[in-house]
Amino acid sequence: MCVNCKLKILNYNTMKKTVMLFLFFGLTYSYCQTIKTSTSLYFSSDKYELSNKNKKNLKAFLDSIPQNDTNRIVRINSILIRGNTDNDADSLYNIELSKKRDLSVSDFLNRNGIKTKNIKEEYFGENRPISPNDKPEGKQKNRRVDIYISYSVINDHPKEILIEEKKNVIQDTCTKDTTVILIQGTSFTINLCEYIKIKDSLKITEYFTPQSIKESGLTTLTETGDQLYTAGMWDFKFPKDTCLKKPLIIRVPVDSCLKNYKMSLWYGQANGRWINARSRGVKIVTIGNQKYYQFKVLCPGKLNLDVYARKPSRTYFKAKNRIKLKEIFISWDCPRSVISINDNKPVKRLKGNIGKGLGEASINVTGIGSKGDTLKITNKKLSSLKYKGFLFKRYLIYRKDFGKNR
Question: Around Cβ 347, how many Cβ atoms within 10 Å?
Answer without folding.
Answer: 16
